[in-house]
Amino acid sequence: MPQLLTQDAIHSIYESARNILSTLGVEFEMDSARQLLRKHGAALDGKRVLMPPGLLDRSLAMMPTHHEPPANGRRLVAASPFCNAPMIADSATGRMRRGTIGDAVKMYQLAETSGLYESVNPGVADPAENDSDDPFVSQVAMLLKYSDKWPALGIYATRSNAKNGDVRTSAITAIQLIKEIRENHENPVMSQVICPLSPMSYGEESLINLDVLAGEGQNITISPCTLSFMTGPESLMGIITHDIAVSLAGAVYIQLLKPGTGVSFSNGSTMTDMRTMQPAYGCPEYLYTQIMFYEVCRSLGMNAVLCGCLSDGTRTDYQAGVESCFTAMAPFTMADVTEVFCYPGHLAAFSGGSFEKMICDEEMMANCNRLLRAPDLSPDPLLMDKLARSLETKSFLTIGDVKIYRKEHRLTTIFDKKGLGSENAAPEPPTDLNVKKEIERRCHAYQLPERSKTQKKALQQYLPGPCKY
């Protein structure tokens, strides 16, 4: 199987990360976090925490080792639409605008009426018109009203989106609300991504959320997002060494909060386009950083995932299609990978989303998943008879089995496959018309998840005005 890093390179990255933790340290911008680490053997230098190798080794030993389940083929999985896009491509003008409550509802409608998505996230982050006094909890309440899928949150409570700036209370309230609606107070009911700050730091808001997640027994993913030559080193190996170090520091802290807590890792680091000072995700450098991080984590027995279907463009065009397919499929050629988690509709390097691109990305994923799965190569026992008859009929239209045809072939209802014809002279391209029809069809077919009177009452107090029952 392909592998990007050699074992010697993996060992070198890990040893460099251990050295960084013990000699330079990582900033923890919350005194209680620093004191907890100091109590277990770390040294303090202002806000920086220096972690000796022994503390790292003991803490990693507490963390459950990830055992890869038997591979059931390779596939693209739809994590959620858009990821966390504050901006949406307007269907009428094509220009980016602030996402609204209506956009968020539409996103849930499309995600719920597709079989691709296994989790859901408030993908239209901080939508306009949110009149709730706790914008963070209200976004979680919207998710629980409009979706029955697993809550995998890419947003978390901050001073700017929490009621009265109380990060801890909002974080706890959101988890308790999910537990109540899912009627599960014993097991994890959600997962949440926490991003360290680059370079080498955990902000107070992130640490408060980690405290709450560990205390409530929920699933945690640490995902560094380092930009080359801006918030991190200019070299790819420098970025990965930085990201491994800061991720290990977070893992240590989580294990000290609650030993045995499972932690997953992903990576959102990439190159900086120095012409615009913006991150670039639809590029080989993003794939290199992500896969190197993935391979180091897996070598340490830590659970890690790869993310794809990303684009830097701001329109549903050739660039967006190429970058989405490129970031989704290239990992299978570069590393020993069985799954890539995709974000259909993603635009503008995590800043934008498009419903039209969402439908096109889903169709791309469906086609790619057929490519990733081995075809049915069982022989047709009637083949010789059909061939003999075809010598007379000169065609298989009357002698072939339509059931076999439908099983062996998939005809897209989205992309234009009709060739030249009168429809191609229409003002609007056929693919665009098909996408619009699909959006309308699925929004019309959507039905709200069933909720009891008690559940509706629990949600009602947090939902924004336009979404109340």
3D structure, described in words:
43% of the residues lie in helices and 12% in strands. With 469 residues, it is α/β, with parallel strands linked by helices. Strands 7-8-9-11-12-15 form a six-stranded parallel β-sheet, with helices on one face. The protein has a four-stranded mixed β-sheet with strand order 2-3-1-10. A four-stranded mixed β-sheet has the order 6-5-19-18. Strand 13 and strand 14 (278-280) form a beta hairpin. Helix 1 crosses helix 8 and helix 3 (53-62) packs across helix 8. The N and C termini lie far apart (52 Å).
Q: What is the strand arrangement across the widest sheet?
A: 7-8-9-11-12-15
Provide a count of the helices. 16
**Low-confidence spans:** none
Shape call = globular
Tally of strands: 19
Largest sheet: 6 strands, parallel
Strand content: 5-15%
N→C terminal distance: 52 Å
Main attributes of the structure:
single chain, alpha/beta, 469 residues, 16 helices
